[in-house]
Write a structure and sequence with these properties.
Blueprint lengths: L12 E4 L5 E4 L1 E3 L13 E4 L4 E5 L4 E2 L7
Parallel strand pairs: 3-4
Antiparallel strand pairs: 1-2, 4-5, 5-6
């Protein structure tokens, strides 16, 4: 085995854990499918760009802080 793993992302939704904590799982899709009303700090795997991005309250940014 090569040690390579595949992970399938899922769309945004609140998922309650056993201890009552609710986590927001990241969404994914094309640039055109980005959420319309994200909360500050929301992440999104942009499949057009090929990497994750985050909403900073004004724009989607990549890991370097550049607007995308």
């Amino acid at each position: 085995m090569s040690g390579v793993r595949s992970v399938r992302a899922i769309n945004f939704f609140d998922y309650p854990l056993n201890d009552g904590v609710v986590v927001n799982l990241p969404g994914y899709g094309t640039t055109a499918q980005r959420p319309d009303a994200p909360a500050i700090g929301d992440s999104y795997l942009d499949t057009t760009l090929g990497y994750p991005i985050w909403w900073n309250g004004a724009a989607w940014v990549d890991a370097t802080g550049a607007t995308v």
